[in-house]
Amino acid sequence: METKTLSLQEIEDIALDALVAAGTKAENARPLAIATAATEADGVASHGLAYIPIYCEHVSCGKVDGMATPKLTQPRPALICVDAATGFAHPAIEKGFNQLIPLAREQGVAALAITNSYNCGVLGYHTRQLAKAGLVGIGFTNAPASIAPSGGYKPVVGTNPFSIAAPGDDGEPAILIDQSASTIAKSEVMKRAREGKPIPVGWALDDEGNPTTDPNVGLKGSMAPSGGYKGVGVALMVEIMAAALTGSHLGIQASPFSGTIGGPPRTGQFFMAIDPKASSDGAFGTRLSALVQAISSQDGSHLPGDGRRNMRKKSHINGVAVNTATLEKIKGVLRKTD
Description:
Strands 2-3-4-11-5-6-7 form a seven-stranded mixed beta sheet, sandwiched between helices. Strands 9-8-10 form a three-stranded antiparallel beta sheet. Strands 1-12 form a two-stranded antiparallel sheet. It is 43% helix and 18% strand. The protein is an alpha+beta fold. The chain contains twelve helices and twelve strands. α2 (26-41) crosses α4.
């Protein structure tokens, strides 16, 4: 695979330019472009620039309204709601967080429900923002159905990730858990399909529920749940939190996050922000440090989020190697508007 090294600023700039060229207003494109660069920095290429051509295609075909204006309401003292208005999730989340963070500090705990939304990218990127603000951040986001129920073969829930980020002393999360209900994120299977590479057994199933190493067969079948029935349970939990609680489309109602079939997916996100100072009597930092030390003191062990944190440090110094084929697709979007 041929690559080209770009700085994080260059990644952000090209993502912003492409999104605007496709018909997204700058104030909506910027939060997504910033998140794209951060995702590349963390080494999660499947959710980075590779998604920009898809985002642009979805703006062009009407799956996403690039000109949408998120609408914020506060129906209860500790609950904020944002209607993304079928626009990108990132500006809706940013608008919600601007109110959620000070509200959580005031109330001790606060929640944010987002509806009529879209793919929010890497969920841990968002909970990390809450942890950087000194809060424990918990997030849920549902996705189009791709996981079958235990004993079944027809998808009913999405890969539905959840994330929790706990603040550390250095302004970064001490622990950041970000995991989907499937063995692997669907975007990783899509990436293998684009590259013409097989997938390991255990990533996906065919349309009869049998294991497959063909990513295209897996994409037509279902994603394998992580831990069997336990993964299905996680997906159902997220579906309750991100779809039912927010009034968003269930996975069985949402259009795919890839391709042009269907209208806006209208999926949802739900976040909780907790001020540890309000409940732990000042012991949160001590307890968390003891937990982190118990893990990090063991040879060969690592904490959730360590890999991304280490990659982030290197990326800020060395830049990121980006697939040149992806860059050509993005340049193709820009050429259409020249």
